[in-house]
Amino acid sequence: MAVALSLIPRLHRATHRVGLHVQAVLPGVNQGEAHVLAHLHERGPTSIGALHEAFAHRRPTLTGILDRLAERGLVRRDVRPEDRRSFRVSPTPRGRRLAARVHAALLRLERSALAGLPQRDAEAFRRVADALAREARLARRPR
């Protein structure tokens, strides 16, 4: 009998349910768009490279998310003045309003989920999630 996975199925299920939650409370916004908007709300204008680093999307996936947000007038992509070979993503005024709503919805969900847990459990979860991301990233590198 195979050894059962203990973390990855739970992480996948939680991620999927966060996506369903986003769709329920913010109709018309999918999970990828919500995370980009929340990131822009927290950090302000961001390079595309920094968005790749933050979310680990494949380039075509992130491009699709940004295209949809731009088509709806929520973000714009401008050439970065300090490096004309790259772009910075900025929310438009309408995008900032939606980003604030998205961020508030995700923050409510996170706070509600953590309300009954000791802070050390949340810290341990962050360390485990970071370790999984780090290991998965390392596993993709040629050896």
Structural account:
This protein is mostly helical. It has one domain (24-140): Orthogonal Bundle (Arc Repressor Mutant, subunit A). Helices cover 67% and strands 12% of the residues. The protein is built from 6 helices and 3 strands. The chain has helices at residues 8-25, 31-43, 48-55, 59-71, 93-114, 119-140; strands spanning 46-47, 75-80, 83-91. The chain has a 3-stranded antiparallel β-sheet. The longest helix is centred in the C-terminal third of the chain and has 22 residues, at 93-114.
- Number of helix segments? 6
Q: Any idea what the CATH architecture is?
A: Orthogonal Bundle
Which class of secondary structure composition applies to the elements? mainly alpha
Number of strands: 3
Task: Spell out the helices and strands N to C.
Answer: HHEHHEEHH
Spell out the CATH superfamily.
Winged helix-like DNA-binding domain superfamily/Winged helix DNA-binding domain
Number of structurally distinct domains: 1
Give the N-to-C terminal Cα separation.
30 Å
Q: Mean of the pLDDT scores?
A: 91
List keywords for this structure.
143 residues; mainly alpha; Arc Repressor Mutant, subunit A; three-stranded antiparallel β-sheet; globular
Summarize it.
This protein has 6 helices and 3 strands; from the N terminus they run ααβααββαα. It is mainly alpha-helical and 143 residues long. The chain has a 3-stranded antiparallel sheet.
Topology:
Elements: H1 8-25, H2 31-43, E1 46-47, H3 48-55, H4 59-71, E2 75-80, E3 83-91, H5 93-114, H6 119-140
Antiparallel strand pairs: 1-3, 2-3
Helix pairs in contact: 2-5
